[in-house]
Every structure is written in C-alpha cells, then in structure tokens.
Write a structure and sequence with these properties.
elongated; two-stranded antiparallel sheet; 12 helices; mainly alpha; 4 strands; 57% helix; Cytochrome Bc1 Complex, Chain D, domain 2
Length: 306
C-alpha cells in the first residue's frame, strides 16, 4: 500500500514511471534504426568542438543498444515483481515490513532459546555471564548509545550508567522497570515565581550543598527559599528522592552541569527529560539481557573502587 494520504499520488507515480520507460524505449529505437550501406560514409551533423572535433551520424553499436533495451526490460520486471507501482501491488507480494518481520522471526528462532535461558536467570547472575554480556552489549550498541554514548557514560542531560548514582534506583528490579516503562523527569520552572535575585540565591545554596565555592550571603538567603519550596522533591538534606527521580544535590554528579550559570538556568527554566519505554519494542527477554548488561556496568565500577 502507498504511504501517501491520497490515492492520486500512487496513480501519478505509476503513470510517470510507465510513460518514462516507454519514452526511453522509443528514444533508443529512434536512434538505432539508421544503418549505413556497405561503403557508405556517415554524414557530419554540424556539431563541432574545439575547432576540429566533429560529430558524425553513425548508428549506435548493436551491443550498446542491447544494453539500453536490457535496462528497460529489467525496469519493467522490477516494477512487476516489486512494489514500484504501489497502486497494483507486486507479483511476489513483497514489502519492507514483510521482509523485516521475516528477518525478526528468523532471528527469534535462532536466538529465542538463548534469550529464554537467560530470562529464567536473575539479572545479577546474567550480568556475570560473558556470553550474556556480549548479547546485552549488542543490544545496548543498537538502541542505547544514541543517548548514553558508546562508553555508557552519558552526556549533558543523559545519565552516566557506569557509576553508582541512580535517579530512580540501580537495583536489577529498578533497571528492568526503567527499561520497561521509560522515565519522564520533570522539574518545574521557578524563574517567574522566584525572580532573578531569588533564583541566584537558591543556586548558591545548591552550590553550598555540594561543597562548591559560593556566595555565602546569597546561600544564606537561598536556604530559606529552598526549605520552603525545594524540599518537596529534593528533601530537607538536599539528597533527593529515588521514588520520584529527584536528584541528589549534595554530591558531584550533575546531569546538566554544576556551574552557577547552569544551575540558574535549571531553576529558571526547569528541565524536561524523557527516556522512552522499551518493553513493547524489545520484549521481556531482550529487556532482561539489556538490564543485566547495564547492571553489570555499574557493578564493575563499584568493584574498581574497592
């Protein structure tokens, strides 16, 4: 079926395609019918290049004409056997979606038993299996590096998956939940409510919470505002809440950056970050493997610090 919203375009494309091939056939025919008799010389067409390079009206070589006709015949065959003429379908019933589904089914048949074996194992145990890690890494490289990077260390606005700082929790169950359901992190904008000066005060208090250099006078004023408004998500001690995905403000892990200007930007404009859900697309078995790979990344980092 055509992807166009109107059936007219499918018909239009079919007419243009067929008319174009017919015209090419006529053109080749018209340029290959002239033949020279034995001993007869070709006439000069009158086209001259560089002063003495003239064009003669010699007929096209037979092998060349055959190649032209061959390409035209191939084009017609292609339109018949493949969906070039979308309005009439094709002899083989081929479609991109059908081919994709066939390849997916073939892959499921080949790897289904392997995936099922690992699905029956706990995530933490799967993370220790070298073959499972290889499969999980392949999934990660296909679906996750666009945001989290090839090294899984993330980027501005995208979490580092190799450390032990988790917005929603880093247990196997929580990682599976994150992959299945996705996450939507939102911080409201306070610029209009606080005003420019109060935003700067709160930003300085946040800097103080993480042990960074700060304007003490502004931080003191910002503390009062923080404890009136920001504690609802970040808690009184500023350590946040994994239950709602509110980040810990007392460490040195920053999703968007730890400069005063960046914190002011965050408080003023808020943040809206989305990770899509993968369960419907990948299925339970692949999510299980992917969760094990991600869990293993953070465990390797933890082991390296010991």
């Amino acid at each position: 079926m055509t992807d166009f919203t109107s059936g007219f375009w499918g018909i239009f494309i079919a007419i243009v395609s067929i008319a174009g091939l017919l015209w090419l056939g006529y053109l080749v025919k018209s340029q290959s019918t002239m033949k020279l008799k034995k001993g007869e010389k070709a006439d000069v067409t009158g086209h001259v290049w560089d002063g003495d390079l003239e064009e003669y009206s010699n007929p096209l070589p037979g092998w060349w004409v055959a190649l032209f006709y061959g390409t035209i015949v191939f084009s017609f065959a292609y339109l018949v056997f493949y969906p070039g003429l979308v309005v009439v379908g094709n002899v083989w019933g081929w479609s991109q979606e059908g081919q994709h589904q066939a390849e997916v089914q073939k892959a499921d048949t080949k790897y289904g038993e392997i995936f099922a074996k690992y699905k029956a194992m706990p995530v933490a145990q799967v993370a220790k299996d070298a073959n499972a890690r290889g499969l999980g890494q392949s999934l990660f490289n296909t679906y996750c590096i666009q945001c989290h990077g090839i090294d899984a260390q993330g980027a501005k606005g995208f979490p580092n998956l190799t450390d032990n700082d988790w917005l929603h929790g880093g247990t196997p169950e929580k990682i599976v939940e994150t992959l299945n359901q996705g996450r939507h992190g939102q911080m409201p904008a306070f610029g209009a409510a606080f005003g420019e000066e109060k935003v700067k005060d709160v930003a300085n208090y946040v800097l103080k919470l993480s042990g960074r250099p700060t304007n003490e006078l502004r931080a003191a004023r910002g503390e009062a505002t923080f404890k009136q408004v920001c504690v609802a998500c970040h808690q009184a001690d500023g350590k946040g809440s994994q239950a709602i995905g509110a980040p810990n403000l007392t460490d040195n892990v920053w999703l968007y950056g730890a400069s005063e200007a960046t914190i002011i930007e965050t408080i003023t404009n808020g943040r809206d970050n989305v990770m899509p859900p993968w369960q419907a697309f990948l299925g339970d078995d692949k999510v299980h493997l992917l969760a094990a790979y991600v869990y293993g990344l953070s465990q390797n980092q933890a082991a390296a610090k010991q």
